[in-house]
Amino acid sequence: MNNKITKLLVANRGEIAVRIIGAARALGIPTVAACSEADIDSLPARLADEVEVIGPARVDQSYLNVEALLQAARNTGANAIHPGYGFLSENADFAEAVVKAGLIFVGPDAQTIRQMGDKSCARSTAQAAGVPVVPGSDGELESIETALQVAQSIGYPLLIKASAGGGGRGIRLAQDADELVREFQIAQSEAKAAFGSGAVYLERFVERARHIEVQILGDGEHCVHLFERECSLQRRRQKVFEEAPSPALDAQLRHHLCQSAVRLAASLNYRGAGTLEYLFDETSGEFFFIEMNTRIQVEHPVTEMVTGVDLVQWMLRIAGGEPLRLQQDDIELHGAAIEMRINAEDPQRGFFPCPGVVDELQWPQGEGIRVESHLYQGYRVPPYYDSLLAKLVVHGDSRAAAFARAATALAQTRLTGMATTIPLHRRLLEDAEVLAGRFDTGTLEVWLSKQGASLGEALAEEV
Fold first, then answer.
1. Chain region(s) in the chain for CATH 3.30.470.20
2. What fold is seen in the domain 209-454?
């Protein structure tokens, strides 16, 4: 099969679709925006060379409809599909169907997606590559009796995790045996409903852990890392605020962590962009692999800002048959970068989604400032999809400089017509613990609960 990409179908929406279209355009590749009927007037549809409507607003009839996407490629003559993140990006059956249709899937092969998408199998793969994992069960557990027996060796508290889960979903906490009995069946049912598989496994709950992930690139024969991202500030296990590099790692720990990621990716003969996620116990200095995302991540811009490497362009180059010419020594860490996710959510109503029409829109500009967004003035944000509106990304020569630039950029941002999480980011940038880099995955939830009712009022005053 000729691997040269002559036309790219973007099988996604929102800001990542805009990002992919921009990367393809820089490489001279024409693009087709695959849009639902609700997204016909979206920015990706306006920016792409062609638009193909793939179905109604419902994702199962559009962005998750494999046959509709393949037909869109046939209709337009696209010979490659970029899945972005979410939707079908980590669906091995989709990747397989794309290749069987004679098209190029921009990502790793179906076998790798399947192997690392099964979290239990991913743990075994990491262990085989000599990468430390969180103590837990050997594979999936089918009965509560077996789970109780295994839990005795792991210890409490522990997590019940869906084997097919990801993105922080499909996880339940059990503080003791009674909670394990109560939560186990619920976890199986939720996993079955959310991911199509009820398989679960157990993992020790590392309290006060940091969530740190390593970006890798590979072409099937050669792998490199692009350092780590700090993603510990999370609400309901969803990332809110990311930065690179992590303020918790020294040079030696960073080297060991990143080398472990390369070792695991190399064992897979990995092809494309991928992210290996770890828990880092700052007290003991230990890190544990938890899962791999075989796709581009939402937070990839902070890595691009500190390394100068365009990850999406490299995804397209590798999918098009180009060898990864980057050597590890070519990739250097410069300064620090921060990403703030701006969501259409109302802090006064428990971050309830609140889509609307963009009234005023003014993004900050200047050195070290980057905005990834699909908004434009007058755009009606549809209520059917993820609430992410934009990513405001800044870079500075140091972490302190990046925080100062982030505050300035937020002050210059004007987005009206709906409630957003912009005021939350203003507060986080002023928080002494965040500024000092003293936080873990539980920090933001505790911070929000301590604010109580006053948070909504305070945030409302800042809008």
1. 209-454
2. D-amino Acid Aminotransferase; Chain A, domain 1 (3.30.470)
pLDDT(372) > 60: yes
pLDDT digits (tens, 9 = 90+) for 269-293: 999 999 999 999 998 899 999 999 9
Every domain of the chain with CATH number 3.30.1490.20 lies at 144-204
- Alpha-carbon Rg for the chain in angstroms: 22
Query: What topology is assigned to 144-204 in CATH?
Result: Dna Ligase; domain 1 (3.30.1490)
Is the peptide bond prior to 157 cis by the omega test (within 30 degrees of 0)? yes
Distance CA 157, CA 167 (A): 21
Active site residues: 295
pLDDT digits (tens, 9 = 90+) for 125-153: 999 999 999 989 988 898 999 999 999 99
CA-to-CA distance for 262 and 313, rounded, in angstroms?
Answer: 20
| Model pTM score | 0.92
* CATH architecture of the domain with range 8-106: 3-Layer(aba) Sandwich (3.40)
pLDDT at 1: 47
CA distances (Å), 13 to each of 88, 170, 228, 257, in order? 12, 24, 26, 33
Which residues neighbour 251 within 8 Å (Cβ) at sequence distance 6 or greater?
Answer: none
**Rounded distance between C-alpha atoms, residue 318 and residue 323, angstroms:** 6
